[in-house]
Amino acid sequence: MRHLYHISLAARVGSSVLARGCAWVTLVAMLFTTGCGWVQSRVTGGLMEDVALATARHDDVALVRQAIPPFLLLMDGLIEGSPTNVRLLTDAAQSYTSYAALLEVEEPDRAALLYGRARAYGRRALIAKHAAVGPLLKQPYDAFTQVSDVLTPEDVEIVFWAASSWGAWISAHLDSMAAIAQLPHVIFLMEWVLQQDEAFLDGAPHVFLGVYHAALPRLMGGAPERSRAHFDRALEIGQRQSLMVQVQMARYYARQIFDRDLFVALLEEVIQTPADINQDLTLQNMAAKEHARALLEQADELF
Questions:
Q1: Run of H or E including 4
Q2: pLDDT tens-place string over residues 34-49
Q3: Is 216 left (phi over 0), alpha (psi -120 to 50) or beta?
Q4: Percentage helix, strand, coil for the chain under 3-state DSSP, each rounded to 5
Q5: Could you give the percent of the chain with pLDDT greater than 70?
């Protein structure tokens, strides 16, 4: 089975699922709009909040993409000075995962390195919050599931980004059976997040699992009907305002079931919907429109 990674890259999906799709749901705007409260209060106060809001409402994706690297270096420096700060570590996992997704098509090797850094930050965040998680991260799946006895409902954000960054790292190392063997751990964590707060980030856990169940062949655990249920629920939670959800549903689910009509309908909905239908999602939705147009241009090749 073949599917697109970020606009135009066709790749073989075997026994792994690409968690990087979830990074696109949050996209660049999420680097600023959901995180770095510690940076905001300790570095520039209200200025960072103003920058966050302006970024989320920006309509120039390329400009924001160019502005991210200095932000990442700032976070690295802050973590050097506060290596067990859970807030910083979580934000770093989120930021590196999302930025790597932006680079993956044109610079896959660099993206793989960034996913590795994101994964490390995500794991460090979990351990900083709950020291007992550390040994469990090294255990086989059955023992690893004991992590649910340690986690609390307040850990949803930490677990979500730890799982997202971990899954993205796996997707960048498909040639490693050791990496692929860790996929069940990631799915367990994301299903835990779903059970705690299905509406987190406008239904992002549903999108993650929707991609997962659509990307795998049935013989390897894929379930298109479950994928559809997850995507439909994400659209309901977000009131169809986060247009990247429709893009992901078209890219993964519609292609998996070879439904060209649904594929086209979802992408045309993205193109026709104003990017500022939710002003705070303008940047993300502008990026979604770019991807929708590119995917539509490839419809004849994909079906």
A1: strand 2-5
A2: 444 444 444 444 555 5
A3: beta
A4: 75, 5, 25
A5: 80
Instruction: Please give the helix or strand (H or E) that residue 41 lies within, else none.
Output: none
Question: Tens digit of pLDDT for each residue in 127-181?
Answer: 999 999 999 999 999 999 999 999 999 999 999 999 999 999 998 888 889 998 8
Tokens of 267: 């992408």
C-alpha distances (whole Å) from 233 to each of 13, 227, 253 are 25, 10, 14
Where are the domains positioned within the chain?
A: 2-302
Q: How far apart are CA 35 and CA 32, in angstroms?
A: 6
CA 76 to each of CA 30, 71, 96, 112: distance values in angstroms, whole numbers, following the listed order:
18, 9, 10, 18
Supply 182's token pair.
């860790």
How far, in Å, CA of 100 to CA of 102, rounded?
A: 5
d(CA 190, CA 196): 10
Contact yes or no for 122/161 (Cβ under 8 A): yes
Reduced to 3 states (helix: H, G, I; strand: E, B; else coil), residue 183 is helix
- Domain 2-302, CATH: 1.25.40.920
How far apart CA 301 and CA 260 sit, in angstroms, is: 11
